[in-house]
Structures are given as structure tokens and as C-alpha cells.
Amino acid sequence: MATKYILTPLISIIIFAINNNDATAQSVNSKHSLRIQWDNDFINVRGDGTDRYYTNGMRIDYFYTKKRKAKFPSSLLLNISDENNNIYGLGIAQFMFTPKNIAVPDIQYNDRPYAGALYAIHSLQSANKIKKTKVTSEIRFGVIGPIAFAKETQTWAHNIINYTKPLGWHNQVPNDIILNYNISIEKQMLQPSKQILLVGLFETYSGTVYNAAGAGFMLRVGKFNNYFDDISVPQTTQKSKSQLYVFMKPVARVVLSNALLQGGLINQNSDGNTGYVLSKDQIERVVVLYDVGISFEKPKYSITISQKSIGPEFKGQYTQEYGSLTMQFKL
Prior knowledge:
The chain is mostly beta strands. The longest helix has 20 residues, at 2-21. The chain has one domain (2-330): Lipocalin (Beta Barrel). A hairpin with a 2-residue loop joins strand 7 and strand 8 (210-223). Residues 1-9, 13-30 and 232-238 have low confidence and may be disordered. The protein has a 12-stranded antiparallel beta barrel. The protein contains 5 helices and 12 strands. It is globular and about 55 Å long. Helix content is 13%, strand content 46%.
């Protein structure tokens, strides 16, 4: 019953935004799609899956365009398009993190804290075809801690597959608020042929849950359409042929704070909160991430499978690998 009182406000945000900001979108535009992304650390191409650190994540986004002038909160997002080459998004996500051994009920000091996050997302992908630049901005609003219901989700999933019951969730990072504003800027650096594309990447994260900045690049090789045209949801035209390509994306980030390790603002400024968190001296300030995968796209749908790795986020952590499956369907 408690889950209902948390999920309802988040879902209401999405419904409110659709009804109030985009009442005419369905009738004037065909660029609507649904994207489902699932991450899990047990999915590993080498067959050595784990159940630790970033252990599971699920994100669902509804993408759309609109002809009306953006209203609040869409007006807070970054628009660089001169040709209305914009894709808005509304979504919901849940992520969960655990220490190395989930069968131990006691606090595992100097290991990753149990932590869960549940939040709504409002995003905008805006592309400038002339400058070959794309900016993705998003607002995240939600909660971390027990009211994110990561414990219930993982316990239920492990019961279904008859796997190890997680016993330490009563030590998880305390309840707190998520309000983050994230920006990703992509700029074409090199395209020597239609089959090879190199894009530079710069990203920032600001807010109550994660503060960081990073830079890297994305290399795409194969058969694909123009990366900066008809972003996110290709229209059904003769030019919208099948695409098949491989990609790699390494990124290095400088991290200022991470509430999923250190606890949120309320926790840090209040006495008497229960739950295990790390100190600021235990946080790794430079984190390297790597993403490599393959994507198959048709005008009506796309499937992307990738293997991701993330370097240590706190002192003593191992580099972690996990798999990601993303499916997108045009509506």
C-alpha cells in the first residue's frame, strides 16, 4: 500500500505534463515513441555476472514533439534547434545499489551502502543540424531511500527466480529528495565517411543527488542515418532505412558528490538518521565509464545491446561491468 503513495505523485507529474503542455501534440506530429531501458549487473558477455554495486536499473520514457511554445517546466530545458528539431520526453526510473555480499544482514563497513532511487524525468533532445550539435537536458525529481522501494523490488525479483535473499536493506541510505538538472552536449568532430562518425561529449550533473562533470567521445561504425537529423524518433520515409552499427563511448567524470553513497541533503544536515553512508573522504573523485554495444534500427523500432563498465566510485571498490538492453518503439 505504501508504494502506491510514492508512485502516484510521480506518475501524476507525467500525466499533468502531457495534458497541460502538450494537448495538441498527438494530432500535429507523428514523432511519438516509447523507450524501455533495463540494466543489470548479472548480464555479462563473459558470463561472470555479479550481484553487487549498481545491481539493477529500469527506465521507461515516452518521447514526443509539440508545436506550442514551451511552458513550465519544459521552458527550463535547453533548446538549440533552429528548425524545431526537438524531442521532449517524460519518464520514470528506479535504480538500486548493494554491497558485494547481499546475504549479510549487518552493515558492511567500507563497502557500498544499500541505496535506491525512484524518480520522474522530463527531458529535451534538441539538435542543430547546421552546427551538428545536440543538447540533451533533463530534470529529475523523486526520492532516495526506503521510500524508493528498491528493497521491495529486489526482494520480489529474487523470490521469483529463487535467488539469494538480500538481507541488509534495513541499513540503506536514508530517505531524501532528488532534484537534479543534467546536461549532455554532443558535437560532431569527424565523419570521414558515411560509415564512421566521431562525436565529442561533455556532460554536467547538478542537484541534490549527483554533482559531477565529464567529457569523452562516441565512435559509431556501420550503417546509420545522419545522427543530427530527426533525432530520437525517425519518421517513416524512403530515407528511413534499416540501420546496423556498433559503437563505443568512453567518458571520464570528476565527481563532487553522490547522495547514493553519502546520503542526501536532509540526511547530511540532520541528526538521528539511521542508515549507513560513506564519508566524503571515501569517495573517488575521478570515475571512468565505458560503453560498447551494437544497435539495430528500423523506422518502427530499435534494439540496442551494450556492455558497460564503471570504475571505482569509492575507495576499495572494484571496476564493475553490467549489461544494458534498450528497446524503442514508434507509436
